[in-house]
Every structure is written in C-alpha cells, then in structure tokens.
Amino acid sequence: MSTSSSKSTSSSKSTSSSKSTLRSNSTSRSMSTSSSKSTSRSNSTSSSNTTLRSKLTSRSTSTLRSKSIIILLWFLPILWCFGKKCKKIHYSNFKIRPNLKYAELSEYKKYPRILQGETKILRSKTLKSVPERIRAMNASVKLLLIVREPVTRAISDYTQLRSHATSSTSSSTSSSYTSSSSASSPSLSSTTGGWTGSSGAPPPRSFEQLAIRPDGSVNSAYRPLALSIYHTFMHRWLEVFPRQQLLVVNGDRLIEDPVSELERVESFLGLEHRIGRHNFYFNRTKGFYCLRNDTQDKCLRESKGRKHPRVDPKVLAKLRRFYVEHNQKFYELVGDDLGWPEK
Ligand SMILES: Nc1ncnc2c1ncn2[C@@H]1O[C@H](COP(=O)(O)OS(=O)(=O)O)[C@@H](OP(=O)(O)O)[C@H]1O
Question: Where do the structural domains in the chain lie, given as residue ranges?
C-alpha cells in the first residue's frame, strides 16, 4: 500500500516542459507488447497470465503491504522528478538514501506529516494499525493498492523467499537499479529449473510441496498463499478510508503496460499527465520495461522480475479454483472485477 496526499497545486508547480507527455485519463488502455516478453520471464503461469505480477502481503491481519509498490516508488517519483526540482520525500525500507532524500523511520508512528498541497509517496511496511495511523496522520490521504493475480503473487513470494534463503549475494541491495545489461536471475538454475542453494544444504521444498498438503488440499496456511487472500486485509483499509480515496492499481497491467497504469495513478493523484511512452523501453533481456531518459537506461534491479520456477499446471489450476471465492469477495469490496483466471 502506498499513500499519497496530493493536490493539484503540487502538480502545477512542476509542470512538464514537454506537452507531448500530456495524456488523456485513460484507465485501461492496452499497449501491444513484444511476444517475447512472457516467454523470457516466467513459465509458472498460464499463458494468458504469465505477466501477472503484483503482490500484496501482510504480516498481521490488521496490516497490508503491497509487494509491488517499489515499482511506483521508483517509476513515479523518478519519472516525475527527472532533472527537476521536484519536492519529493521518499520513505522505504527504513533505510537512509541521502541521494533521494530518504529518511530513516524506526516506526510508522514517525510517518511524516503530509500537508495539504504536498505529494509524498510512502511505502507501507507492515505494522499494526497502519490504516488507523495513516488516517490519524492525514484523513484525506490517497492510497494506492497494487494487486496482482493471487497465484502468481504467491509464486513470486515463494521465489523471493527462496532467493533470500539460498542466495548470499548482496550486491543487488546496494542499489535499487541495475544496469539493463546485467539483468539475470541468480536464484534458479537455468538448466534444471531447480534451486541452487548453498552447497550441502538440502534442496528446499518446491512450491507445490508447500502449497498443497499431502491429502491434496490447498495449504491456505502457507504464508505466500495466505497473503494472496486479499479481502482479509482489504476490509481493514475500507473500514478506515472511503473507497474513493483508494486506487486499485493493476499490477499485471503495470508490467505489461506501465504507462497506462501510471497515467491512471497520475489522474487519481490529481497530477498533470507527464509520464509517457518515451519514458520506457522494453528490455528483452530482462523481460520487463525499463526506464529511459536522455542520457541512460535504467532497469529495476535484479531482484525485481526474477524468473519463477515452473509450477505443475494441475497445482496452478487447483490454486486458482481456491482463490475464486476469495477474489470475488475482494472484487466486491473494491467494486472492481479484475478478471483473474479461475482455473
Ligand atoms: N518493469 C519492471 N521491472 C521489473 N519488475 C517489475 C517491473 N514491473 C513490475 N515488476 C514486478 O515487480 C515485482 C517485484 O517488486 P516487489 O514489490 O515484489 O519487490 S519487493 O517486494 O520490494 O521485493 C516483480 O515480481 P517478480 O516477477 O516475482 O520478481 C516484477 O514482476
């Protein structure tokens, strides 16, 4: 969950010199993308959903975390602030990033005040009562919820957990960007599709083993699966904030067509439409869109867009059936049918 309080004053202050970036308020325009994209990225999902990628996680029933907020955290501020004196305070992961005016936060109670006319983008980690705290800070705050097809989110979560468990590589943590030429997946063996854990360690359990119990039932207690039951978290936010203060960002479309989703975000935040297709190019090596400006190209770092393990199609189908009812509840809560697959 990302929060932002924005007023048109903030956008008018930073008017883009390029009028060509101004866009209509398209909400779901689809941009044709290279067919090589899905094949180069993931083989874990059905062909129609190979790029469903947004995650939404939580560490307690009262909190909610959007795993893909990093995309907005990076794309939006960077595109908005390229070469400009853009007032931007960027909070993420409790780390100090002086070059981007990050601030260190030890607790969410230290969330900065968001004043009228200011735009700040916050990354919501998971602590209790986050919705209430944010409301206490600023009741008119605007919220961005980035969601992804739940099964793919769970596989992504699994992939990340495995990667953390098996990889001792820390180089990617030093920078949130990687050069577009070094976009590889360090966590999976390209030949076997299996994990390359530390030597001597037992092979980690597969997603299938963790997701499905020996009796064949879905292990809904498995955390990556539990965290994909979005309605259980969503209702907490909607008890605290009116629906119109929340934008559901389609994380799948954010991958396929970042510009259209970012345009929606700009509209929702009351920002002038400044982000355009010229800001992006499709990087075939990485299998994702990357940023482009006059002087350089930037992809998100290696840990963003990892190759997912192959998952048994029967397990995928079983999980998708499991989420049908939960997805329906989520659609009803947010008043939007995201059309996630049912098998
Ligand atoms: N342009 C672009 N480049 C790379 N990655 C992209 C992009 N757009 C969206 N994504 C998806 O973002 C997912 C990783 O972001 P997360 O928020 O899950 O990362 S994290 O929670 O901070 O670790 C990541 O999930 P995985 O594919 O499972 O790695 C990506 O699918």
Answer: 2-334
**The token pair that represents 176 in the structure block:** 């949130």
* 66 three-state secondary structure: strand
Q: In terms of CATH architecture, what is 2-334?
A: 3-Layer(aba) Sandwich (3.40)
CA distance 207 to 227: 15
Whole-complex ipTM: 0.95
CA of 71 to the centre of ligand 1 (A): 7
In short, whether 288's Cβ falls inside 6 Å of ligand 1 is: yes
Q: Is 160 helix (H, G, I), strand (E, B) or coil?
A: helix
Helix (H, G, I), strand (E, B) or coil at 81: helix
Q: Please tell me the distance between residue 23's alpha carbon and the centre of ligand 1 in angstroms.
A: 25
In this predicted model, what pLDDT tens digit does every residue of 167-217 receive, in sequence order? 644 443 333 333 333 333 323 333 223 344 445 666 789 999 999 999 999
Which numbered atom of ligand 1 lies nearest the CA of 299? 3
Instruction: Tell me the binding residues for 3'-phosphoadenylyl sulfate.
Output: 148, 156, 289, 304-308
pLDDT in tens, 32-73: 222 333 333 433 333 333 222 333 333 332 333 343 344 455
The band of 101, judged by pLDDT with boundaries at 50, 70 and 90, is very low
Please state, as a whole number, how many other Cβ atoms lie within 10 Å of the Cβ of residue 99. 6
Ligand 1 and 304: CB distance under 6 A: yes
Q: Ligand 1 atom 15: the closest Cα is on which residue?
A: 68
